[in-house]
Amino acid sequence: MSASMHRYRTHTCGALRESDVGQAARLSGWCHRIRDHGGVLFIDLRDHYGMTQCVIDPDSAAFKLAETARSEWVIRVDGKVRNRPAGTENPELPTGTIEVYITDMEVLGPADELPMPVFGDQDYPEETRLKYRYLDLRREKLHSNIMKRGAIIDSLRTRMKSGGFFEFTTPILTASSPEGARDFLVPSRIHPGKFYALPQAPQQFKQLIMISGFDRYFQIAPCFRDEDPRADRLPGEFYQLDLEMSFVTQEDVFQTMEPVIRDTFKEFADGKPVTEVFPRIPYFEAMLKYGTDKPDLRNPLVIADVSEVFEREDVTFNAFKNVIKSGGVVRAIPATGAASQPRSFFDKLNDWARSEGAPGLGYIVFEDEGGQIQAKGPIAKFIPEAAQAVIREKAGIKAGDAVFFSAGTEDKAASLAGKARVRIGDELGLGDKNQFAFCWIVDFPQYEWNEDEKKIDFSHNPFSMANMSHEEFMALDPADKDKILKITAFQYDMVCNGYEMASGSIRNHRPDRMVKAFEIAGYGEKEVMERFGGMYRAFQYGAPPHGGMAAGVDRIVMLLCGAHNLREITLFPMNQKAEDLLLGAPSEATPKQLRELHIRTNLPEK
Taking the model in full, what pTM does it have? Predict the structure, then answer.
């Protein structure tokens, strides 16, 4: 080989083609798979860019060394590029028509016995995968997910910039703020006994950027929340596409952000359909029709309220009558085409409802008998034909369908109906799963009732503006609970396939209005000053009307990669117990570190 050749490679493992046949090449990479075919060794050499088949036989000076190589050893090979023998080409690989005959080899990084294989994408226990994440990340699926993640973020960034947004970075060490979850606290060495907090979101900073006169801000922002882990949320930290705009209405935010998200999805959806114009569904309508504020619109079933049917004189089903008397509701979930299902289908749904803490799911099956609709099922006999007709009309049901009922307080009935809608849709295979179905949920209630503490709380974002004039809002009586719980806000979520993808609002930008909003939730002006002093003062010096939102980058990537949890699209995630198994966090601090911070630990009794 010539002296001028690069120390490690002339080509990557994804570069050689038929046009390179006859050339000398030098490759470096990992031994992906080693196969011994009767004295001839085949080494599939892999790097970030691809895979090349390398061949060596006993005629080569490097054969003895090649025989020692094992899976995941890092080696350099020199050799000649040649055509693969006819019939052994691999059309799956870009390099599949050629191979490299090895004349020289060097071991760059030997590998121990592997705790998990890289070759083949079989499932391995999560603890092993996270502890040896660097091996896991060599695997094809995960490697390509991480690269796709970067490409999706690039695409979002480009679209935001072309929309006139500028990228700003905001502090990571900041003040504690009541965003809704627990803060991660960082003790200050310089100020003994005081703590910084990691931002749950850059909420106050982005509003301050608007008050500072920058018109359009965005950032791919890390957010930190000390929450109990869930499958659809990474423990500890996650990223969001955070943005804020000045002099905008809710409509402006939608017109600006819908194309950014829709077109990014189209770019990476591999041809799956993406909603063209996102429907807007008011919160209370979503809770009625879908039993959730995160509806999966791929499922065509729509829940209906049938409380009035069970109040009728001629209906004698007392279990539901009593629910309604005590202030509850009855919801009907249609099951299209379910009349032909075996009895076990209905029994299974009943058992499931009991496991959810409900007494069961009453149901009626409507069969077509000679052009007449016949109602069957355990509660059909308590509901005469005239009342059944009303149920069919309200729930959009015809012969061949069934209907299930969920009864209880409005919250409980809606929640069970929503879960039942998803289960029934899945069991019956309704709706095309191969699409991205988006919507906006709008008109969220500004406040909610906290039953435990018997007080009014913010229901979403404390900085949102109520959907009423300044004068009307300022005149509200904080004691008028009924009126306050009916107030809706310029507050919205973007939802896709049953996941909340983004959340935002138009903000209260008048200081008197901000204080009033907090006063209704039981905070005094003094508390507002203590917790949001910086922002509250800033509002006194001319704040523009502004609003924005934040979209979950991890969730966007998860959906576009077709992954089922966020650990499949994150480089170094923690496990479900919020532990980093690779580097061993969280860990204990040394006595010296604790002394410098003036901190003593007071651990719970074992």
Answer: 0.92
